[in-house]
Amino acid sequence: MSTARRPDLRWDLAARVLALTGRRISPEDVYADDRYAVVGVDGATFRLYRHGSLVLVRHCDYCGIGHFESPEIKDLADLGYALSAWLPLHEDCENHAAEDLADW
C-alpha cells in the first residue's frame, strides 16, 4: 500500500469504531502503516487490516505477555464476544489457567 492510501485506512478504522462503539475517533489519532491501522479506545486496541478485517488485540489473559487477535469483528455481537467472552491464552498458559481453576 502506498503512503497515499494510509489516510484512507485511518478514516476507515475511525468510521468502523464509530459505527460499533459510538465513539468518535479522529483519523489523526490512528496509527497506520502499509499493512494495517491501529487505534486504542477505552483500553481496547482495534486493528484494521488493509484487506478489511477488523480485530481486537489483547495480551494473554493469564500472563499478560504477547499479542493475540480476536476473531474478525463484523458487528456488535462479535465485538461483545471479543470484549467479554474471548480469553486469549498462550498454549502453556492454558494449562496453568486450567490448574488454577481446578484449585479454586
Radius of gyration: 16 Å
Strand order of the largest sheet: 1-2-3-4-5
Please report the distance between the alpha carbons of the first and last residues: 50 Å
> Mind summarizing the main beta sheet?
5 strands, antiparallel
Share in β-strands: 15-25%
Total helical segments: 3
Estimated helix fraction: 25-40%
Average of pLDDT:
87
Structural class: alpha+beta
State the domain count: 1
Shape: globular
| β-strand number | 5
Order of helices and strands: HEEEEEHH
Low-confidence stretches: none
Task: Describe the overall structure.
The protein is an alpha+beta fold. The chain has one domain (3-103). Helix content is 38%, strand content 20%. It has 3 helices and 5 strands, in the order αβββββαα. It has helices spanning 6-21, 76-85, 91-103, and strands at 31-32, 36-41, 44-49, 54-58, 68-69. Strands 1-2-3-4-5 form a 5-stranded antiparallel β-sheet, with helices on one face. A hairpin with a 3-residue loop joins β1 (31-32) and β2 (36-41). The chain is globular. The chain starts with 5 loop residues before the first helix and ends with a helix. 18% of the residues are buried.
